[in-house]
Amino acid sequence: METKPFLLIFSGIPSSGKTTIAQRLGLELEEKHGIPAIVIGSDQFRSMIPLHSRRFDPEREPFVKELTLSAITQALKRGYVVINDDMNYYVSMRKELSQLAKSAGAGFAVIHFDTSLRDALQWNEARGKPIPQQLIEEIYNKLEEPGKEYRWDRPIVRVDPSSTKIEEITRILVDNTLHAMERWGRPIKLAPPRHPYEDVDRATRQALGELVKRFKSLDSLDQLSAIRRDILRKARHGSITANEACRIFSESVQKLLESRPLKASGSPVVHVGLFGHVDHGKTTLAAALTEKPSTASLDRLPEAQRRGMTVDIGFSAFKLGEYLVSLVDLPGHHSLVRQATAGASIVDAAIMVVAADEGPQPQTLEHLSALRHLDVKRMVVAVTKSDLVTSERLAETISRIRKMLPDKYSRSPIVPVSAVKGLGIRELKEELHAILTPPIRLWTGSFKMPVDHAFHVQGIGTVVTGTIQRGSVRQGDEVEVQPGGKKARVRFIQMFGEDLKEAWAGDRVGIVVGELRPSDVGRGQILCAPGTLSPAQYVVGDVEIDEGYSHELAPRTSMHVNVGLQMIPAQFTPFREEGETRSVVDDAHAGERCGAVLKLQEASVAERGDRLLLMRIDLPPKSSRVVGSLVVTEILSAAPTLFRKKLREGVVAEKLDEGRFLVRGLFASASGATRYVGSVVSCGEFDGRIISAYGQDGGALVETGRDLSIGSKVSFVSFRRFEL
Q: What is the distance in angstroms between the CA of the first residue and the CA of the last residue of the chain?
């Protein structure tokens, strides 16, 4: 029988059910459809070599591969449908097979097995572990999912043997194979848009894989898988993006594992910020701690030297046990609060610096509020210049510090130091090491890095520095600047003097981008994967107002918003949810929670789940300038719909019919009454409804179904559109 030769390229991790289903698929094609089919994989040839079948021999793998490809070629030339059930976890592997099919005059299609790591490990365990469990985990982490980069690599179908019966999978594969064979040779049509669920599924699977790879002592795989399944359930019925799913997964895992000892592979990078009042010795302390100065570090800027204080964010590094600590030195002067709060958004822990001779000052309290609102969880207090005061004065300063610490930091260690003499530095490092834990980053998701510096290096080009917030970036990747949209190619990556081919979330890097000038990208802009982020002017979110804030918070209050490393002027309008209506709040107060809309003066990049700091930097520096924080729930290019709530009150003027009354005082005109026909009014213990306007002076006909006495009160809450 003549038939079209065709190659089915299976991809997936080991022990994912590929071989079992390949055999069933081949049998179904041959018996029910008369299509000659053959399963060819490298395992068949390994089993022919007695020693190799018992012990994996890397030196014989090239020969095994040659045999496999040769057999596939011969089968295709004889008109078979060939099912290759190897793992084919790299794009290059699938590319080689697709080219082999083309050279044999055959068609091809990719089928991906979406089996979870947990199920693959369990199935392998049940079979007596014919494959080392570690190898399955390694391949899971290396897997390059088909269809991510190239159209030819797009699977005709994805299957998950852990959630679908084998018989049903076989039927699905037969149908899709026959369709692909019929379509072969015709123009390829683009596949229908992917459901966001598929992207969430892939992203969270990769996130779980990164955890397994980076934390060798991880013993909570069942609980982590349960977290992932819960996110997938929400994604199936909601509108969660892959990036949001990764953030939710990371936050949930952080909560699950924060009380458990974790051992990370390698030397995890942690970012520690130095905060405190101006001239309290932050930069001197940084010099005493640091080993590797970096961008703008240790006050080398001419303005810093002239003014005798830190004027920009400085970065340096030192080794602390298993960690590489990236130290972020922030300005303490009240006029430089923008830089200080920008730095707070990228740190994992903080060192609050308080001078022993002055004690806590206004910016000490301001920085504490900013850290709390940005959810920096860990802190050590360093009492600098402790050699300049008596033991009594030092004890008094420590007591004042302990009393002012908010509940979040009430148990933070307090360490007296003298950076100039080196006293207490070892103890400070020990206390810092004790509060640090291996960070769980957003290693999965689209690349995102807030930019803190951009400058030109002679003979190299423009260097952009920052801390990667999400995903990874490789040498040769295309990146985009937002806001702005300018694109560039990554030429080189460096982290604290070491050249890298690839950098991940949490890494503090310098990236050489050939096509950009320093003027094309500035602090606060985002370097990201092209097409993944877009700026917007309106941000909606949930607000927590700081307990120390004592000023009015009326609609359209002007303030500044810390978005990543940017401080942007904005108008703040608080609201509360009343059913489906967002009702503007005339005055929000300290300690309250409410919703709010931020109208940004310039479009900026924010994402759902981001935590933004709200400040009134126009206020005197000795007052509390931290307004609070906002967690983003919506990002909009146009103004959202808000309403102003108004309580209207009237009285029953006349009984017109049984259960119907004329009410005056609710409205000023007939048009006002007409606008609210059908609305519900309160008549004391029961409700009524406005039937129509009555006369031209604002009277309203109200129907209650019950009797009302003349002069009794009737109230009505109306909502009018509020313009931002």
A: 73
CATH of 448-528, one of 2.40.30.10, 3.30.450.180, 3.10.20.600, 2.40.340.10: 2.40.30.10
pTM (2 d.p.): 0.67
Cα distance between residue 253 and residue 246, in whole Å: 10
- DSSP, collapsed to helix, strand or coil, labels residue 454 as strand
Rounded Cα–Cα distance for residues 269 and 87 (Å)? 33
Tell me the pLDDT tens digit for each residue of 362-390: 889 988 998 999 889 999 999 999 999 99
Q: Where are the domains of the chain?
A: 6-183, 196-257, 269-435, 448-528, 536-640, 644-722
Between CA 549 and CA 616 the distance in angstroms is 10
What is the CATH number assigned to the segment(s) 644-722? 2.40.10.190
Answer whether the bond into residue 483 is a cis peptide, omega within 30°. yes
Supply the angle between the helices 221-237 and 242-257 in degrees, to the nearest 10: 150
3-state secondary structure of 162: coil
* Amino acid found at 629: S
The C-alpha atoms of residue 246 and residue 229 are separated, in whole angstroms, by: 13
Report in angstroms the alpha-carbon separations of 402 from 85, 309, 409, 623: 64, 26, 9, 21
CATH architecture of 269-435: 3-Layer(aba) Sandwich (3.40)
Q: What are 79-138's pLDDT values in tens digits?
A: 899 999 887 888 889 999 999 998 888 999 999 998 888 888 888 887 776 677 778 888
Fold adopted by 6-183: Rossmann fold (3.40.50)
Asked if 133 contacts 121 with a C-beta cutoff of 8 angstroms, the reply is yes
